[in-house]
Amino acid sequence: MKPSFYRRTDLAVEDSNVSSPHHGVSVQEKTKNDIRITTVEILNDEGAKHLNRPIGHYITLDFSPFWKEGEKNDPSLSTVLSEALTFLLKKGESPSRILVVGLGNRTITADAVGPFAADKIEVTGHFEYEEALRPYLPPCPLYAISPGVVGNTGIETQKLIKAALLASSASHIIVIDSLAARSTARLGQCIQLSDSGITPGSGIGNHRATLNRETLGVPVIAVGTPLVVSSATLVCDALEQAGIQEISTSLQEVLENGKSFFVTLNESDLATSLLADTIAEAINTCVAQIT
User: Fold this and answer.
1) Mean pLDDT across 270-291
2) Quick one: residue 188, left, alpha or beta (phi over 0 = left, psi -120 to 50 = alpha)?
3) In terms of residue numbers, what domain contains 227?
4) Cα–Cα distance between 31 and 145 in angstroms, integer?
5) What is the CATH number of the domain that holds 38?
6) pLDDT (tens digit, 9 = 90+) per residue, 52-74?
7) Rounded Cα–Cα distance for residues 150 and 145 (Å)
8) pLDDT tens-place string over residues 190-224
9) Which of 161, 179, 189, 274 is nearest to 223 (CA)?
10) How many domains, the chain?
11) Whole-angstrom distance, CA of residue 291 vs CA of residue 273
């Protein structure tokens, strides 16, 4: 068994096949305001098979951990994130109403970035029919929900989102979630956006119903930041760096027993809170400027 079998990541840029040329995959890199922006575009079915991901754009922003310095926000990051979000939202028909969904469990810090960000969204949907307020509102009404996790609600998250979608008549959905990374160096130091939707829990092997255009009927933009790495992934990366290409049967048993263990940051509470603030600010700015 090769070490790569046990590696888990939600980040397209961490896929080992990204660096291998393929006519179905386009990779572009640039830097803006000291933020590295990597855009992986899966162009066709061959590219999707090559990276084992759906067709679409995967934009990753790599940045320094501003939250370690006690800073409440990084204005440059919020600006770049807002621009990337605007690009994905306006690739097709411009949104008329947007529903923001904060996925995750707010009682588990490393899984709470979605609900924390949803709490900071400047919702305006309930004012949509207030004539006196209309001149002062953004042209695109904004709604937000935090559906929780199925273990607490007993209801599949996708069903709750469909109900909110029906109630809001949203034309687009933005889903915010915590992600799993392959490298600890990326924890709390990157944000990935994608227009291909998301399968909650896929990075930790806990697959829930997929949230995308096919299942929900409207475009779904996923925004996430990695806050956990699986213990098996850490071991396998160390083995590959040491030049070990095959895993023994005895080590396979250890890795199988450890697949459900995950590592997060010492400063997970601070990073989660401030990254949620940054994501919410970028969404609020983006939506306010959409015409």
Assistant:
1) 92
2) left
3) 3-289
4) 33
5) 3.40.50.1450
6) 899 999 999 999 988 887 666 67
7) 15
8) 999 999 999 876 545 555 688 999 999 999 999 99
9) 179
10) 1
11) 30
